[in-house]
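Give me structure tokens for this 132-residue protein.
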Amino acid sequence: MMRSVRKLLGKVEQARKEKGLTPGELAVALGRDASEYLDMERGLAPITLDEFIRLTEILDLSVDDAVMADHRVSTMVKLFSSLSEKGKLMTMVLIEASLFYEACSGVEKKGRQHGTPSLDLREKTPQGRNIH
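Here you go.
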């Protein structure tokens, strides 16, 4: 599924460049910091459905064209539309949690590549040892 998300974000990046817009300009439109926007466009930070829809509006992209280009995504959209409102809400919570987890994993990997310490959220004892 992450390939599909990256493919969609690639379409957003391509449309942004074709329109001559900077990442900073789109960041302002979304209420984000420019570096946060770039991380989002690269798939390193989560994007909400509202943000994606706003981007398609700004960039004159058809949501159908952007989403339906990938058959798997098309199938997921059809399944999603058949869910009850409660099912849709639960699905959106799971998707956002998944994207957040993926973004956090990307931050950890990015830190390791640059020789900086990775984020460790495990609880530690007063002696500094991890609690498992």
